[in-house]
Amino acid sequence: MSTATFSITGHKRARLLFLGPAFVAAIGYIDPGNYATNIQAGAEYGYLLLWVVVWANLMAAMIQFLSAKLGLVTGESLASMLGKRLPRWAVYPYWIQAEILAMATDIAEFIGAALGFHLLFGFSLMQGAVITALISWAVLSLETRNFKSLQLVIGAMLLAVALIYVAELFYSHPHPGSIIQGALIPGFDGHASIFLAAGILGATVMPHVIYLHSAISKAEIAQYGRQHRKSIFRSTRWDIALAMTIAGFVNLSMLAMAAAVFHDTGHQAMGSIEDAYKTLEPLLGTLAAQIFGASLLIAGLASTIVGTLAGQEIMSGFVRFRIPVWLRRAITMTPSFVIIWLGLNVTEVLVYSQVILSFGIALALIPLMRFTSNRQLMGRYVNPTWVKLAGWSIVLVVVVLNGYLLFSE
Questions:
Q1: Taking a C-beta distance cutoff of 8 angstroms, is the pair 134, 321 a contact?
Q2: Are 405 and 398 in contact (CB under 8 A)?
Q3: Number of compact structural domains in the chain
Q4: Buried b (16+ CB within 10 A) or exposed e, 29-44
Q5: pLDDT of 38-75, one tens digit each?
Q6: Which residue range is the domain that position 208 belongs to?
Q7: Pairwise CA distance, residues 310 & 289, whole Å
């Protein structure tokens, strides 16, 4: 839709029109990597690490708003800003690390979807991977026709997973007092719990959607025009609040369900998604296990689509080069096929991929903070002092946590 022919009639229509970008980003926060870390955390430590999920989600909401703001104000994505402003010698190394992180993300997402097909329908992981590839290619074709349609499809997937977890809470009956205590009172129980906390952080605050959200916001401004920036800003706040609330609910529910079903019943060693699925049936019934598998399948499919979009933006932003989406999809899913072919432990791969991602958060977040705190770039939309303090505190937490993991290992 061209800027010249676009008009907004009423705040409600504008608010609905601009909803969607945060729902695309939020899918990255409920991908199969979250299933691996949340289930393992709940099974081993009960409700202890719920507070990590709460704070990670609050961090993610703030980061996504900063990413959207960068795109709306500057008309540039984070990747394109870095491509233009980094020294030439640094552009390619920075691009390569961002690509590696995007591929690590896709491993979790792609394998998770394949695992969903395996658990629900009895396909082998390799057969599930082939089906995942075909479906993701089909859905990604919407991106070349109408991106708003793709946003609606992904948003519907997010809502479907949330509704499934309403049902899972009904079946699992987590203890309300323990949920409140775990969500509000920070605590660890040894090095392994800190490792899992890093995995939860890496699975929640996703570097690739930091890049992607700024790109989608840039496209919104290009499509609808800078004269509507105030309306888009207003809607963006609602968009992020709604999407991140839903994603946060899913993550909290996932960990609470694992704590109630596995930890509280003496199944603390329930570290794998496959074992969790198999154990849910005798404990809660066939339907509970099936809807768990369905949520994993939907989340995996949606997040692998979003991961491919993020990879496209990272390449075009840093090095001004695009490849056909089918080729991008083929490249990013190759490591997943290799892992499945080698027969590696799927849950371990998912958890370690999320820990790797946690090491990349600061590399995306530091330039995001620097750009959005630059008055020359942002004008009156520059970060206020409290946002600067909160943002740099997040960077510090990420760096300290990752440093502890690196040196303790």
A1: no
A2: no
A3: 1
A4: bbbbbbbbbbbbbbbb
A5: 988 999 999 999 999 999 999 999 999 999 999 999 99
A6: 11-408
A7: 31
